[in-house]
Sequence to fold (238 residues):
Amino acid sequence: MPPKLISLYQGEEFLRGKAVGIISADERLQLHLAITEAAMDLADVLRQFDTADEDLKVIQILGMRIFNAFGASLKLALSGYSQNSALIMRDVLETVFLIDYFAGDRSLIERWRVADERARLKDFGPVKVREALDARDGFTSQKRFKTYKMFSQLAGHPTMKSALMMRPQSDGDAVIGPFVEATTIEAVISETGRLAVQVGEQLNLFFPADWSQSLPSRRAFARLKQCWMATFYPFPAA
Fold:
């Protein structure tokens, strides 16, 4: 390995220790990581179900894609590459929207898996999926679009706003290379937790109801989700 790449890796490992220290001192960040682990576990368990159903195999593959994305995103975030971590989270967002779309109408899975590129882009492009979900759920505030736009502007596209994630201090200059700063870590890990809740909710819908092997993971996710919701979205006092 070239010496400068070795030095870069050593710096990343040092920053990982710093990031873990930040998380260890914050129970809320620990909860975000716990729900992320639980969602990843659901994806891992679901892919172990032996099936000849080609539609279910699609969901298994998408779950595996999300598992890998969460793993890569967390590795980047803890190593000081928050912007690149957020870029991968945009992929998770698109994928969970697609799974949500399929959950509402499972006949769409076959259409998607046999579609050619033109039909796939026309019927299952990111905008089409978001608009269909909003129409199905009666949402008019465009929350899905706003979240996607946030990830796109800060990480997905080279815009002036994307430079914000390259600044250790909000009023400072952009830097080259990785860095770990508490506010940035908190923002990235928090978004990871929010995505993980959505992922777990959607994957859970595709487990065979009578498959006992999945129950421990599904129950563990349900318990953590209840705790997560009570912490971050508590019901107002009566």
